[in-house]
Amino acid sequence: MNQGVIPGAIGVGGLNLQESVSFAGRHGFETVMVNIREVHEIAAEHGTDYVVDLFGEYGVKPGGWNLPVSWSDDEKRAEGLAELPALMETANAIGCTSATSGISPGFDDGSFDERFDRAVRQLGEVAKVLEQGGVRLGLEFIGTPSYRARWQHAFIYDLDGAMKLINAVGSPALGTLFDVWHHWVSGGTPEQIDGLRAQDVVLVHVNDAPAGLSIEEQIDTQRTLPMETGVIPAPDMLKRLKAIGFDGPVMPEPFSASLNELAEQDPDAAGARTKESMDALWKAAGFAE
Predict the structure, then answer these.
(1) What is the pLDDT of residues 81-126, one digit of tens each?
(2) Exposed, middle or buried: residue 14 (CB in 10 Å: 0-12, 13-18, 19+)?
(3) By C-alpha distance, which of 253, 270, 271, 274 is closest to 262?
(4) CB 122 within 8 Å of CB 169
(5) Cβ atoms within 10 A of the Cβ of 1, count?
(6) Which residue, 210, 225, 201, is CA-closest to 278?
(7) Coil, strand, or helix at residue 111?
(8) Closest Cα to residue 5, out of 43, 62, 47?
(9) What is the overall mean pLDDT for the chain?
């Protein structure tokens, strides 16, 4: 298990690959989220060794990349899948075979079973290509009640639902992106993690929640850094993830207005504050003294 960073998620936006890797390195993060299209373009121009050496220079490894495929869109999916093999070849060359995407937590038309069967078919097409390229996809469920309310009907919004969908597809290329916020706001418990296997989890997001609000009052884009309020039992969740054998990147996704404001004024100060929160989380989980 390692500490990673998504610069944009802590308010440090607009960084290119070298700037992102440098930012992660000087703040002590072991991994960083990358834009696989940007990496592919750089590798095409300078070679994959150039990219590998870039990461090595700062002592950082690529932690994952957002899947550039609109998997739930029947009109756009084929175009994204056609592009994917070349991107996966680059991803393998730099040692970064974890991708991420999300599941819409609701729908407006049709029945749940129809939407579920459609998602199984759609993800099955994606998984087939991913298997051929040796890449795993972490699917993130979105649990926030106030966010789910924008649709007429609820779809997949919790861990149990995500695993049912993943198991229905039946591909080793699929797992979950486990976000402690979404697990907590969906009504999930730390104990549910005990039923997972290491291969069920591709990547982890950590954060905390504003105090004094019910789960129904929480806003998806208004969170805090890990350990800032102690509302979400993130240390217990991480202990359990480690116990099942998960050893991948753990990345903060706070969506914090105060952190974003700090990042606007001083990006490195935001990086340092984020690392402090991750170190506090590591200590609370018993991973460090």
Answers:
(1) 999 999 999 999 999 999 999 999 999 999 999 999 999 999 999 9
(2) exposed
(3) 270
(4) no
(5) 17
(6) 225
(7) coil
(8) 62
(9) 97
